[in-house]
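#structure-requests
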Amino acid sequence: MTPYFFGYGSLVNKDTHVYDNAHRAVLKGWRRAWVRTEDRETVFLTARADPNSRIDGLIAAVPNADWAALDARETGYKRLASDGFVDHPLEPATPVQHYAIPSESMRHDGDHVILLSYLDVVVQGYLREFGHDGVQRFFDTTDGWDTPILNDRHAPRYPRHKQLGPDETALVNSHLTRLSAFVK
């Protein structure tokens, strides 16, 4: 049986990957968080176990169970079995895995930042897949908004950045204002 991955960040934006056969899904018992690691000066979006939370995302097929390209894209993450934790429209036995930053790689110090070009890509994906309510849920089910956000829109540092339209930009900005996020 073809395996699937569950994406909950940039992988929700189908313009950032080539994986077909994507479907909306929900990962139960997990919550998103921005975390620091020793590997990068920017933070990662990860999933943390939380029995009281659920996060929206997409599942997509990994043809021929060839995880190499996806594992390379998700460097720094550990791939975890998600079977039984993902609500999706496929056969119940469909194998699903998701990525998370290992706790031993996380740091709690430093002056790391969230790249706004990365956040824009994530929000664009959620808007396209889940609408305005899905964007609201993304912001509400993600921790770490006290991390400074680097406004790199004019010179994007995120390698898979996408240009946002004026309404998309305004949507991201309004949620950041609502959360009192610090954008520098």
